[in-house]
Write a structure and sequence with these properties.
transcription regulation (chains A, B); about 80% helix; mainly alpha; 2 domains; homodimer
């Protein structure tokens, strides 16, 4: 039992070390040695858990997917209406806290590595598409009268905006402040919000 | 004279080699040796022009800024109206051609490096802000009645959307097709477009 606990403990340490090295030092700083130093173990012990740098990257991307997925699940189920749920899911993905800024840095580092590695690119696409799919489902719940194509187009646009905000805020938090990000997401949600004064086509009716 | 021409020729070769190595192999593949091989010269000759990998990155980012800047100037001056100019500037920045996809890859690679290097991050911020400023000026020309804050917020949102589209299209051109990108940009331009039936506040007037 003690050995199994030790093993789990070591895995947790290596996992946390991988995450924090990537979040702090980016893709150029991610090496087996840096992870070993951060975890307080030998490079051999890192190699026992991760074959190479690519395995470290895959692990960090999976952690990111799990973290953001759990937070999105929570945001989604806390929403009183589909629109509340959609807005919360988008806002939780934007970089308002240090935790989320770390996530944006991991996201960018992984993406940069994926540009040179088809297997990493596959993983990135898969996880990003699952986020687009979540957003698409929420858009459809908000506007059941919209065509599937319109819901899909709205979802890809919203996700592009959120990831663009995240990406830019990672190096320019002064231009891309929390308020700026929230305002951008709210503006992008305007067509989905469907004010009472507008009909399904987004055209204001003539008042009688 | 011959020597000067040789030197210029060599600089051009090194510049093209830096760009194409970064666009093809991303940040992990950018080394002095890879650039030397691509340029058909020795590593020593690369070192004569670029002190280190960071200098290669800075050069590629400056090339990117110049290329996109020239294209944006052309798009802007070809626009018959401020709205045409704004739309063209945003569309030219999105990844519709292989050339622009290359640019997105260079942008991402540089950004990933900038996360671990404050000097690179400064350069990235400066160039990105100059794009935001261009877009802000065009938004203000389209909607002179808007407050400066509203023009600025619209510009940061439009730039975030464009960079998000670029970033996502770089690894998932199937989800982020040219049509999807164009539709997303047009949807985001709707508030700027100011249909004749809406007044300055974006509220449809009651028809009398």
């Amino acid at each position: 039992m003690a050995r199994r606990r030790d093993l789990k403990d070591q895995q947790r340490r290596l996992s946390a070390a991988t995450w924090s090295v990537l979040a702090e030092h980016g893709l150029p700083g991610l090496t087996l040695r840096a992870v070993a130093e951060r975890a307080g173990c030998t490079t051999g012990m890192v190699l026992h858990a991760f074959a190479d740098k690519r395995a470290l990257l895959v692990h960090a991307r999976e952690l990111l997917h799990r973290r953001t997925g759990q937070r999105a699940d929570a945001a989604q189920s806390a929403g009183a209406t589909p629109l509340d749920a959609l807005r919360s899911v988008l806002l939780q993905a934007a970089s308002e806290t240090e935790e989320k800024r770390e996530e944006a840095r991991v996201w960018i580092a992984f993406l940069a590595a994926a540009l040179a590695d088809p297997a990493l690119a596959d993983l990135h696409r898969r996880y990003n598409r699952s986020f687009v799919e979540r957003v698409r489902g929420l858009v459809a719940a908000c506007r059941p009268e919209w065509s599937p194509a319109r819901c899909a187009a709205t979802a890809t646009t919203l996700v592009a905006l959120v990831e663009g905000l995240n990406t830019l805020a990672a190096v320019d938090a002064e231009t891309y402040t929390d308020d700026a990000q929230r305002a951008a997401i709210d503006a992008a949600l305007a067509p989905v919000r469907a004010p009472a004064a507008m009909n399904a086509a987004g055209v204001a009716p003539i008042l009688r």
